[in-house]
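Please decode residue identities from the backbone states below.
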């Protein structure tokens, strides 16, 4: 029997949940160093343009398809197609999204668990419970599994509570705390010696660096990951949005918050790195490039926090809390993809679906942890370089070619009767039909070759 579907209670609730999905580890540990190493403000500008020209149209394709069908990706992509073949391809695209989203969560939860471990290790060490504190920050299979399971439990607990009472409620609590923590940390770090050098490196524009094709493709890949595209996450969030809301502007706000927080994170990360350098911490690798990603987060920054004295414990705890929150609002959006499918296809309760999907993905994570060297990098590469672009491409094809133009316009008219005369309608269809598929296709082919 069809139960009433969940729905976001307010436009702001939706924006915070979707922005919560978009803003994640990628924004904080990837974007700032990528920008600094690749032309500073020039890269930031190129990234902003790409995010709006290429990632935003795909985001809109997902939101529109989802809201139109008010159903999970399999149902939605089947519904907008009319021939048996396109229905079958639609269903497979939806299923592929579910698999890719689950695999992304399987590695994301491992990294997120480390963030949890670091968050509590600082107060524990300060309280003299150093045995546990050290165990939590040292790499071991036991620690990785334990923290991953805790993080997955938190994720499943929120998803279980439902769209409004779980996802929306927690996103509206956690997102403001993320922004406040980020701003306070950046303000503090900016007062330390060396911070201004970091700001200069981050922002001084070097246009000669950004005009490389490779870089633009890399930036596009990050924009795709950052906006959680290609696996049905945004599709399912769109499906819980009321027909009254104007999608083009709502989607634009989500994209703006995502890019805005990535840029803001640079005001924390880059000054921190140069403050660390001032204090003798190595911030470059052997080839002279800025350290980034996991080394940055788990080696460079902790070394900096250790030099800050008493307040360092507070700063470190706040920083890893920030990372944990960013990860949690993203991971709930990944788990919602399989959960919505289980609820709608098999009629399972939300509780049971979240429990089963969470357990299944935790088992995959455990396999990844047990074969860390062989599988961790492989799962990341297959999902983000192969799965996401392919899924994004298919979403564009469905929104641009398979979905009837009238029905698509009808979807936009639900909230804006004048939709046919908007700038969005003049430009966007051409984008999703031609521009996006071609460019994503190029990225895809290059990353596979
Ligand atoms: N966007 C998140 C980040 O920047 C990660 C994320 C959440 C994601 N949901 C997703 C990535 C779905 C791909 C697909 O960290």
């Amino acid at each position: 029997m069809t139960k009433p579907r969940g729905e976001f209670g307010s436009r702001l609730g939706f924006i915070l949940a979707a922005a919560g999905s978009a803003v994640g580890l990628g924004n904080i540990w990837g974007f700032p160093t990528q920008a600094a190493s690749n032309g500073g403000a020039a890269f930031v500008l190129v990234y902003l343009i790409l995010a709006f020209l290429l990632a935003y149209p795909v985001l809109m394709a997902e939101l529109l398809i989802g809201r139109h069908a008010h159903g999970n990706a399999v149902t939605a992509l089947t519904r907008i197609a009319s021939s048996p073949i396109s229905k079958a391809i639609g269903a497979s695209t939806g299923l592929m999204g579910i698999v890719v989203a689950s695999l992304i969560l399987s590695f994301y939860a491992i990294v997120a668990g480390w963030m949890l471990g670091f968050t509590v290790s600082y107060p524990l060490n300060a309280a003299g419970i150093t045995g546990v504190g050290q165990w939590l920050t040292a790499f071991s299979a036991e620690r990785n599994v334990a923290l991953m399971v805790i993080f997955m439990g938190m994720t499943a607990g929120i998803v279980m509570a439902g769209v409004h009472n779980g996802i929306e409620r927690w996103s509206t609590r956690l997102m403001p705390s993320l922004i406040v923590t980020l701003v306070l940390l950046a303000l503090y770090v900016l007062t330390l010696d060396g911070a201004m050098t970091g700001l200069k490196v981050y922002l001084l524009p070097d246009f000669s660096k950004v005009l490389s094709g490779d870089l633009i493709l890399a930036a596009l890949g990050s924009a795709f990951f950052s906006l959680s595209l290609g696996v049905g996450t945004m599709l399912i969030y769109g499906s819980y949005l009321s027909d009254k809301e104007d999608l083009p502007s709502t989607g634009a706000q989500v994209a703006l918050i995502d890019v805005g927080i990535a840029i803001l994170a640079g005001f924390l990360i880059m000054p921190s790195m140069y403050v660390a350098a001032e204090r003798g911490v190595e911030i470059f690798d052997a080839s002279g490039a800025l350290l980034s990603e996991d080394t940055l987060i788990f080696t460079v920054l902790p070394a900096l926090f250790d030099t800050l004295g008493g307040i360092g414990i507070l700063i470190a705890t706040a920083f890893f809390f920030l990372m944990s929150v960013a990860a949690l609002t993203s991971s709930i959006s990944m788990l919602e993809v399989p959960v919505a499918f289980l609820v709608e296809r098999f009629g399972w309760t939300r509780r049971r679906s979240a429990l089963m999907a969470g357990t299944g993905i935790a088992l995959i994570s455990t396999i990844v942890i047990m074969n860390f060297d062989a599988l961790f990098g492989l799962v990341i590469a297959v999902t983000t370089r192969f799965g996401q672009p392919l899924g994004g491409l298919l979403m564009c094809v469905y929104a641009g070619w398979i979905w009837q133009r009238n029905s698509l316009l009808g979807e936009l008219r639900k909230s804006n009767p004048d939709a046919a005369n908007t700038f969005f309608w003049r430009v966007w269809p051409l984008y999703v039909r031609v521009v996006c598929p071609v460019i994503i296709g190029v990225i895809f082919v290059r990353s596979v070759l």
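Observation: Residues 2-448 form a domain with the Amino acid/polyamine transporter I fold (CATH 1.20.1740).
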